[in-house]
């Protein structure tokens, strides 16, 4: 999964990227940083099995660079929009500190509205052009029907993520990589002074945004970037001083994982304890394919131990004795935290 970090010029998005992906140097255009998803369940299994290898799920954060010399603070370049089309979710970094170039005042609500408007406009231009052609061709297709509905929503300034689409409709639109269809985390990037200012309390603890496919969080990007460069003991001291339970990046990573409707299933043993990423609602053979394509092709059954039962019993043997170690077939829908053992004929 790729999560694109973007925003208007001088919003601090590269600082946020460095806080989320410590040790990765931003490039001129697009920079990738692979980040492990914190998961105490993997830690629990590793403590039990003492495996040779422990592997966490990963998210790829993408720093979508704008024009470093931009003088206009409310414009997204065409190449920025194009880069957004290649990611699974967006992070809109909103500036909550004084503009270092002194060209634009702090107005968080305005910047959020302007960003959403730009995404809608970018999609409108793409959809309008395609609908016009389909109408001239008198096409009687799912593509035309869904794009006409999308065009009507965009004309009414409604982002496409707020509409419901069938799998066939999403497939028909997939070639256009529409940016307002992407889930969005709005990330309020406050300065150190603003973080402690009660005037910014609503942005420091933002309410959940209205509409589907959205979330909101806040952080002080500069502090988080400095925190990410410290070793574990120094981080603990820094967090205690700041009266924080954990670095904001950990909560943010979890939020990104949830927003994109991903879950983790687990495999465990003396060789490796590992979290695997799969879409919520995936059947067992699809999960098996994440481990190896041969396991999906020759899928026979999945031996399943739910996470709650693992916690309750503390071992596979105890769970089996209690009747909580199940055998499931191809129709089983994998649940978050399931510990799976796949049986395959290949």
Layout of SSEs?
Elements (H helix, E strand, L loop, with lengths): L1 E5 L6 H8 L9 E7 L3 H10 L3 E3 L2 E7 L13 H7 L4 E8 L11 H29 L5 H14 L11 H7 L10 E7 L1 H4 L5 H4 L9 E6 L1 H8 L3 H11 L5 H12 L2 E6 L4 E8 L4 H8 L1 H5 L1 E7 L1 H7 L2 H6 L4 E3 L10 E6 L2
Parallel strand pairs: 1-4, 1-5, 3-9, 5-6, 6-7
Antiparallel strand pairs: 2-4, 8-9, 10-11, 10-12
Helix pairs in contact: 1-9, 4-5, 5-6
Concise structural overview:
This protein is of the alpha/beta class. 40% of the residues lie in helices and 21% in strands.
Describe this protein's structure.
The chain is built from 15 helices and twelve strands. It is of the alpha/beta class and 346 residues long. The chain has two domains: 2-259, P-loop containing nucleotide triphosphate hydrolases (Rossmann fold); 281-344, Beta-grasp domain (Ubiquitin-like (UB roll), Roll). A hairpin with a 4-residue loop joins strand 8 (262-267) and strand 9 (272-279). The longest helix is centred in the middle third of the chain and has 29 residues, at 108-136. It is flat, with a radius of gyration of 23 Å.
- Give the helices and strands as they follow along the chain: EHEHEEHEHHHEHHEHHHEEHHEHHEE
Largest sheet: 6 strands, mixed
- Quickly count the domains: 2
The CATH topology of the largest domain corresponds to Rossmann fold
Percent in helix: 40-55%
The share of residues in extended strands comes to 15-25%
CATH architect. name of the largest domain = 3-Layer(aba) Sandwich
Q: Helical segment tally?
A: 15
């Amino acid at each position: 999964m790729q999560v694109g970090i973007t925003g208007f010029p001088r919003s601090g998005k590269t600082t946020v990227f460095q806080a989320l992906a410590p040790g990765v140097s931003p490039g001129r255009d697009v920079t990738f940083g692979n980040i492990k998803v914190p998961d105490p369940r993997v830690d629990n299994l590793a403590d039990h099995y003492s495996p040779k290898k422990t592997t966490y799920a990963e998210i790829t954060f993408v720093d979508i660079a704008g024009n470093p010399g931009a003088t206009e603070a409310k414009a997204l370049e065409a190449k920025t929009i194009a880069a957004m089309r290649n990611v699974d979710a967006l992070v809109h970094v909103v500036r909550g500190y004084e503009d270092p170039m002194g060209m634009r005042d702090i107005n968080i609500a305005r910047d959020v509205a302007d960003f959403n408007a730009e995404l809608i406009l970018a999609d409108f231009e793409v959809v309008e052009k395609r609908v016009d052609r389909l109408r001239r061709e008198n096409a009687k297709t799912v593509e035309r029907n869904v794009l006409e509905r999308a065009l009507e929503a965009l004309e009414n300034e409604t982002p496409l993520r707020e509409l419901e689409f069938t799998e066939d409709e999403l497939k028909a639109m997939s070639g256009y990589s529409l940016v307002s269809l992407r889930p969005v985390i709005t990330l309020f990037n406050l300065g150190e002074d603003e973080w402690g200012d009660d005037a910014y309390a609503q942005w420091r603890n933002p309410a959940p945004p209205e509409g589907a496919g959205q979330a909101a969080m806040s952080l002080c990007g500069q502090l988080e970037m400095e925190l990410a460069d410290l070793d574990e003991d120094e981080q603990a001291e820094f967090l205690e001083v700041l009266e924080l339970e954990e670095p904001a990046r950990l909560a943010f990573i979890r939020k990104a994982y949830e927003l994109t409707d991903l879950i983790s299933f687990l495999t465990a043993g003396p060789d490796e304890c590992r979290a695997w990423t799969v879409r919520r609602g995936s059947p067992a053979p699809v999960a098996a394919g994440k481990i190896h394509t041969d396991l999906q092709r020759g899928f026979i059954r999945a031996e399943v131990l739910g996470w709650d039962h693992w916690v309750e019993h503390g071992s596979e043997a105890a769970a089996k004795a209690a009747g909580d170690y199940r055998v499931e077939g191809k129709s089983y829908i994998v649940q978050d935290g399931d510990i799976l053992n796949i049986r395959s004929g290949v």
